[in-house]
Amino acid sequence: MGHRTGRTAAGARGAVAGAIATGAMSVVMEAGRRVTAFRRQPPELIVRTLLTGDPQRPVGGEDALALLAHFGYGTSFGGLFGLLTHRSGRAGTQLGVGYALLLWLISYAGWVPAAGILAPPGRDDAGRQLALVGGHVVYGAVLAVVLRRLLRDRSQVREAA
């Protein structure tokens, strides 16, 4: 397999793993929302802000748009993780969790507060931040596990050929 083809396949495997990991993360975030007091999930607030300039102003179809945005983000960064780890073949769980926590830090301590969507973690709803951190830990672990599984399955197919 050529270098470019290998990168494309690595990105595609990462994207698949990212989509699956986003699903697992979404379950954790929704459980966190139900257990704590926060009302709106960040993807919903991000969509509102992008479309209206105001995270408090609802828009039609925002649930579907937020779901698409969330899965698009998670799938894209899963693809990036696949690309970043494909040469070493080391998509370990610790690396996946560290990667996901870095995404949390860049987003929720960085561009999300800078865009006026949510307060920084120390000033935001503690329950939401706990759900977000927990969700990112799950995202990173699932991302790494699924990516390793996809790599192992690919190796077994190659050995059988």
What is the structure about, briefly put?
The chain crosses the membrane at residues 64-84, 96-118, 130-151. With 161 residues, this protein is mainly alpha-helical. It contains five helices and no strands.
Describe what you observe in this structure.
This is DUF1440 domain-containing protein. Helix 2 crosses helix 3 and helix 4 packs across helix 5. This protein has one domain. With 161 residues, it is mainly α. It is 78% helix and 0% strand.
Main pleated sheet:
none
Structural class: mainly alpha
Gyration radius over CA: 17 Å
Q: How many beta-strand elements?
A: 0
Helix proportion range: over 70%
| Portion in beta strands | under 5%
- Figure out the total of helices: 5
Counting structural domains, the number is: 1
Approximate shape: globular
Low-confidence stretches: none
Distance between the termini: 14 Å
Q: What integer is the average pLDDT?
A: 91
Order of helices and strands: HHHHH
Pfam family, one: DUF6789
Organism: Pseudonocardia adelaidensis
InterPro entries: DUF6789
Transmembrane segments: 64-84, 96-118, 130-151
